[in-house]
Amino acid sequence: MATPTQLELSGQLPAKDTSDGEAFNRWYITAIRRSELADYFEAVGGTMVIRPYGFSLWELMQSALDSRFKATGHKNAYFPLFVPESFLKREAKHVEGFAPEVAWVTHAGGAELEERLALRPTSETLFGHFYSKWIQSWRDLPMLLNQWCNIVRWEKRTVFFLRTTEFLWQEGHTAHRTSEEAHEETLRMLDVYADFAENELALPVVRGEKSAAERFAGADSTYSIEALMPDGKALQSGTSHFLGQNFARAFDIDFLDTDGERKLVWTTSWGMSTRILGGMVMMHGDDAGLILPPRVAPTQVILVPIPTRDETEEARVSGVVSGLIKQLTTKGIRAEADTSDKRPGWKFNEWELKGVPLRVEVGPRDLQTDQVTLVRRDNRAKEKVSVEGAVERIGDLLAEVQASLFLRAREFREANTHDADSYAQFKEIMSTQRGFIRVYWCGSADCEQRIKEETRATIRVMLEESADDRPGQCIYDGRPAHRRALFAQSY
Ligand SMILES: [Zn+2]
After folding, report:
1. Under a CB-based contact definition with an 8 Å cutoff, are residues 91 and 99 in contact?
2. 340, 328, 368, 365: CA torsion to nearest 10
């Protein structure tokens, strides 16, 4: 990852050039630092600080997700940060999958520990341990818990939000009486993630099941939502796992069923992290900086008073500004005024950089005809509106910005989703424009692996079988295939 120069940090953003990977990275990290979403922590590689502006954004995202979890019957809890090594080892595939990125605590209180403790890379094992104590009968099921916490997975390089050693997320862990119920839960939460991504973040996603090679360590099946980034790479933005009885077996989570027999429960887990915040920044931003979807923007409307030397006019400007702030706030719109002594032009740039969806310019000239000027961040469209009608128009415009960001992103995805008839065409697309490629795949891990080695593209999800599907041929080896998969290079 390129490090931004001092010039980039203090002055102009580099252009958002999505055709050149390095230039696009430079735009991304500079936009994040200049807008004050986050900063590096040089002393510990791989880590970052989420600054107040970034954290306000995360809090809004968190609250939108959390209310969806509660609405689907889940409750929050908090489990310890430390996972004993013996716990991780109880599910063989699980420990094997996570071992390379676990950070261990070996010493504490001035002495070497008898057992190493992992800083949680995920918490299936801890939930498993407690579920075995808390679940006794069918009456205790389903158990539907979620926790908001930090996770540690060791990374050598940092890419703000997308790849960091420590990140914030939520992890849902549920236990059910039957396999069917656990399956339903797995898909329900995938839908919750897709709904959140599309309706709050204006990020269109494809949902589907992962191939065996891309499955979560310890799961029977893994589903994900995938968003296509502007450089044509996919971003896995949330995952939901059907864990079968693997953790129930490893942690003896059994219950007395209605028929009087003791049975193992069926479990699921699902997670979404601060990573999706990075995806949202990448997707919507432009040469001038971030463009935040109104539903999660910490400041939805910025009011900029235009200075004047005339005292009467100045009093009128500030009166209109404070009146509008009051009305907007009453309507639940997050509005603030920039009353600093900087030039209006400087303020316009700064709030554009921060991605505030709507700007209101309140100036003496407009006020002579009782008007203010509204400027959309997404397309920079300007309009004048009467002071009296401003609040209503602002509400409508915020909804329009939200909708058009989503449509723009979806159009981009559609234009960059290809069907390939031959492997030669597949390779050609992957080496030039990238994007999603929808092709038949025979199901062989070998074909999947070779495609990955030769094109760096992996199966993001397998597509649902649909009525108009006809038997096809595997894109790699031509063997009969009945299911299509969506390939892409990924973050
Ligand atoms: Zn094949």
Report:
1. no
2. 40
Looking at residue 386, the DSSP 8-state letter turns out to be E
456 CA → ligand 1 middle, Å: 16
Ligand 1 geometric centre to CA of 481 (Å): 8
* Single-letter residue type at 312: T
Q: CA–CA separation, 196 vs 467, rounded Å?
A: 28
CA of 401 to the centre of ligand 1 (A): 44
Residue 38's identity, in one-letter code, is: A
Cα 202 to Cα 230, 296, 404, 407, distances in angstroms: 14, 10, 8, 8
Q: 244 in the Ramachandran plot: left (φ > 0), alpha (ψ -120 to 50) or beta?
A: left
pLDDT tens-digit readout, 8-28: 555 578 999 998 889 999 999
Residue 69: closest CA among 172, 182, 143: 172
477 C-alpha to ligand 1 centroid (Å) = 5
CA distance 274 to 153: 14
Note the pLDDT tens digit of each residue in 468-477. Answer: 667 889 999 9
Check residue 158 and give its pLDDT.
Answer: 78
Identify the three-state secondary structure at position 238.
strand
H helix and E strand count, the chain: 15, 25
Which of the 8 DSSP states describes residue 490?
A: B
